[in-house]
Every structure is written in structure tokens, then in C-alpha cells.
Amino acid sequence: MFIKEFIFAIVIGVAVGQFGNTFRRPSIFRNFGGSSQSGSAFSGAQSSGSSPINYQGQTGQYHLSWRAARASPMRHSDAIRYCKSLNMNIVSFDGSNGNAKAAEINSVVVSEAPYYWTGGKVTSGGTAVRWNNGRVDPIPPKCPKGTQCNRGLWSNAGNTPGGQPETDEECVAVLIHTYTADRGQPHYHDVACHHPKPTVCE
């Protein structure tokens, strides 16, 4: 009897060793932390010899940090450093091609992440955004008070009339599930740079 129990225990142990790591917590936001505002430094790049590319799109090759097991949400400055550690740059959505890039990436992000850092920073008193690649795009004028208008990817939601940017925050993030007025769709928001968020590298 003892021998049978011993053999059974060995079989169970082998099964757990082989299959135990295949089960993961079923959450699309698995790699996202809480609401801490202090931010966190990135926890390291890919292991040596492996490609950082984890999303191949029509507009380019990208690294989505939340798909990397070692990458935690990070401050904007750390997001820039994180991408550089992969020999990449934090994503810029400038010009006409920027809209196509944003649309493609956001089509993936909407089911995987609640938000992410871009390489944009609000400048010129809230009338323009300077991207990480050095290019500058104008920000559409805000809607008249009490109205809604099409401002591209810039959100009409926020704590001030007319929507984003609110000009008291500098770094540009794409938010999806934060404001009810965004209706679960990706939009640009200016956000304080110390907030922890994942990012996209290109």
C-alpha cells in the first residue's frame, strides 16, 4: 500500500511540474498595478539574444511593454529609457502616418490594456504636441463650452471645459477605460508624467 501511494505522489509531482505553468490568471490587465502615483522604474529589457518585437503591424514593428513579463508600469521618463534599452524609441504619432499607426496599435490595445504612454509632450500653452522624434503637431482647438466636436484622437473628456489637453499636465498618454465620456475608445490625454503606465516602443 505504501509503495502505491509513493508512486502516485511521484506521478502527481511530475504532472504539476510539466503543466503547472500553463495556467494563468484570466485577466486582460494582468500586468497592470494599482493606482499608485509614485511610478516605478522599469525592471529590465528582454533577455539577451531575443527580439523585443512582440507585435508586427502593417505600419511597423512594435514592442508592447505589457506583453513583456519583466516590464512593469513606469513613469514617462522611464518609458523612454525602457524603449532605448531595447534599441527602440517610445512611439510617436506625428503627421498623417501617425493616425494610421495610432489606429492600428489602438485596435490591439483596446482589448489588452487600459492606457499607455506615447512619446508626446504638450507644448506651446496646450496648442501643440512635441513627439519624441522631434516633430511637432498642432492640437485641434477645444470645443465651445457645452458642445461636442470632432477633435480626432484628442478627448473631449476631462476636468476642464472643452476636453484635452488640460494644460496643467505635460505627458501624452492614450486612455481607454478612464473616462465614461470616452466610451471605451482610445483618446489622447495629457497626464502627469510621474503616473505609472505601460508603453509602446517602435
What's the short version?
Helices cover 21% and strands 16% of the residues. With 202 residues, the protein is of the alpha+beta class. The chain has a single domain (58-201), classed as Mannose-Binding Protein A, subunit A (Mannose-Binding Protein A, Chain A).
**What is the average per-residue confidence, as pLDDT, rounded to a whole number?**
79
Strand content: 15-25%
**Helicity level, as a percent range?**
10-25%
Number of domains: 1
Number of DSSP strand runs: 8
Low-confidence stretches: 1-30, 33-38, 41-48
- End-to-end separation in angstroms reads 61 Å
Structural class: alpha+beta
Radius of gyration: 21 Å
CATH architecture level-2 label: Roll
Order of SSEs = HEEHHEEEEEE
The number of distinct helices, counting runs of at least 4 residues, comes to 3
The level 1 CATH classification is: Alpha Beta
What summary fits the major beta sheet? 5 strands, antiparallel
Query: Quick one: CATH superfamily?
Result: Mannose-Binding Protein A, subunit A
Q: Give the strand order of the largest sheet, numbering strands 1, 2, ... along the chain.
A: 5-4-3-6-7
Shape, per Cα inertia axes: globular
What does this structure look like?
The protein has helices at residues 2-19, 76-85, 95-109, and strands at residues 55-56, 61-64, 115-123, 128-130, 136-138, 171-175, 187-191, 200-201. The chain is 21% helix and 16% strand. It has a single domain, classed as Mannose-Binding Protein A, subunit A (Mannose-Binding Protein A, Chain A, Roll), CATH 3.10.100. It is of the alpha+beta class. A hairpin with a 4-residue loop joins strand 3 and strand 4. The longest helix is centred in the N-terminal third of the chain and has 18 residues, at 2-19. Strands 5-4-3-6-7 form a five-stranded antiparallel β-sheet, with helices on one face. It contains three helices and eight strands.
